[in-house]
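Internal tracking record. Fields below are filled automatically when a chain is submitted to the structure queue. Please do not edit lines marked as system-generated. If the sequence contains nonstandard residues, flag them in the REMARKS field before resubmitting.
Queue: standard
Priority: normal
Entity type: single polypeptide chain
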Amino acid sequence: MSMPLRIAVFSDSALPLINGVSVSVAALIQELRDRGHDVDLYANRFPGFVETHPNNIRFNAVEIPFWRGYPVTMPPLGAQLKRFRARPYDIVHTHTPFPVGMIGLRWAESHELPIVSTYHTLYDRYSHYVKILPPRFVRYRIARHTNYYYSRVNHVITPSEASLKWLRRHDVHTSATIIPTGSPLPKPQNRAELRAKFGLNPTDLVLLYAGRLAPEKNLRLLLEAVSDVMRERPEAQLWLMGDGPYRGACEDLVDQLKIRSRVKFLGFVSQTSVGEVYGAADLFVFASVTETQGLVVQEAMLHRLPVVVVSGGGASETIVDGHNGLLARNDRMDFCQKMIEVLSSNESRNRLAEAGFHSQLPRSIPAMVDRVLQVYGQVISEFRSKEAKLDP
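SYSTEM-GENERATED OUTPUT FOLLOWS
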């Protein structure tokens, strides 16, 4: 759109919290602001974090026992509502159907503003975190709420075909557009220097996983398959970049598999150092089938890492098997064999890495924001047209 827009963004995942949604939201907002659009972010306040950006508005929030690290909004909301009312927004964009997203929906409706929402996550796959209620009941309630929320917005953005199918499965028929989340292009780095920094020998083979350490990430399969790889390739090691509630279980399994000396739990890595970890690795491995798109797979490919991904869900959608990566069945033996296939050939690794890099170039942040702005323009135009018809 040629004219600057005034946009209210609502998200319960925002920096300093690091996950796929918060990184996506931050990239979207920064690019929009860089293009001259006026963007306000409404998000939860995080313990110990002091907000410095004047256009980021924080809600009071508290942590709950079964959702550590994700504070939940608490009233009062008077100061934030006063700010909202004082700003003549053109559109509201929410990134969650939960408390912060509900605030965005209610305020958009009460102020007669068009609203777009991005469906980032297959939320009912996370029902096991609500331990005080039966998982089946939680999945049912999430499904009902998913239908309620996304049926009330004017347009839905989804990052992949898999997430759109999931919405349709929940009987959501709102108009929707698939827009994969963009990733920044990494800066060139000296691979030999990076590997020396991490104390790696030239013959070492580093398999890398990046993401939360959580049950839904299918990490048992990953660790078991990697242990099989290590029996055939003694020079192989595994790095796990990220942290989460499943770390203890992963450490126990690593001990059971007798591969502790060859597995590194890197924990959370700062944004400035993430590229160094990607740059030092030899192969990216990913087993989750619950992703809407798998941003870390995209990031790995942009860092020219060959990838082996378990087929299923959004993480595997960008992989053309044998061309820009390898797809494995959700099976320990097949996953292991695909990893060994890549590790056994320098030519194969280089070919997959180059094809993967070039396949992800169109998924840049500017390209993502171009498409988001097209959706904004369409929704605003349709909303104003309906309003004009209602006016006598």
